[in-house]
Amino acid sequence: xxxxxxxxxxxxxxxxxxxxxxxxxxxxxxxxxxxxxxxxxxxxxxxxxxxxxxxxxxxxxxxxxxxxxxxxxxxxxxxxxxxxxxxxxxxxxxxxxxxxxxxxxxxxxxxxxxxxxxxxxxxxxxxxxxxxxxxxxxxxxxxxxxxxxxxxxxxxxxxxxxxxxxxxxxxxxxxxxxxxxxxxxxxxxxxxxxxxxxxxxxxxxxxxxxxxxxxxxxxxxxxxxxxxxxxxxxxxxxxxxxxxxxxxxxxxxxxxxxxxxxxxxxxxxxxxxxxxxxxxxxxxxxxxxxxxxxxxxxxxxxxxxxxxxxxxx
Length: 313
Description:
Elements: H1 3-23, E1 31-37, H2 55-61, E2 66-72, H3 79-88, H4 107-115, E3 122-126, E4 149-152, H5 166-180, E5 184-189, H6 191-197, H7 201-224, E6 232-237, H8 259-262, E7 263-269, E8 277-279, E9 283-284, H9 285-295
Parallel strand pairs: 1-5, 1-6, 2-8, 2-9, 3-4, 3-5
Antiparallel strand pairs: 2-7, 6-7
Helix pairs in contact: 3-9, 5-7, 6-7
């Protein structure tokens, strides 16, 4: 064989191998939605025996995905640190009031860089304005680069902003679904946490119930829209719990290492997720991040978490 023929043969073989590799995608997941219900205790969510405050998740969703019974925030049990653990895969003692960026890039930044998508394919939508910090990083290699689209609070971190009601956040969520069909969507609902801080048990429980209805609307989009159907993995969790009734001022506050603050809920559903199973193995917030990176096949494995292999088909 002449050198010219050898080179042609080698190039054809290489091209064949590359094409075969591209065709062999490990996972069916193409889109990921992460929903964070801010601040309920496990005892009022999946730890409540009848699940009466999350009726749709219990009656419809539970048997179609995986429920974790021993899921924890093993970092700082405040809002911004809890959300940062999910988006970056690292526990960071980050300022809770939106004046500090995460040290590490979010899975959205990693995804936007690797695949080169437009920022409107990745969104952070939050009732709390301070969570706009989740879209950026103080790391010099990532600062102000590959920033997802954001819709947080009244006006993000801008002057005159503030928190908004979850009902308004839900309107924005549905609008983004309709207008942009994002591939990555990270959502925060605040009502359980806000009501807890106001020492209103009724509003706290009502906030959990309303979040169940918002989750139902998201579920129905996933099931009815061909862009998402059979292609979307959904994670639902919370960032922290609240004090046990025997600790400090009880459900009004949070922020320590008591079981009430650390023990949270987590649910997973999708084409690569097992069906109708319960996981009793201890897992934690940063593991969501590691699993998202795995499902998205992101080459930069930037996470302290571990992949939730026990839930994957």
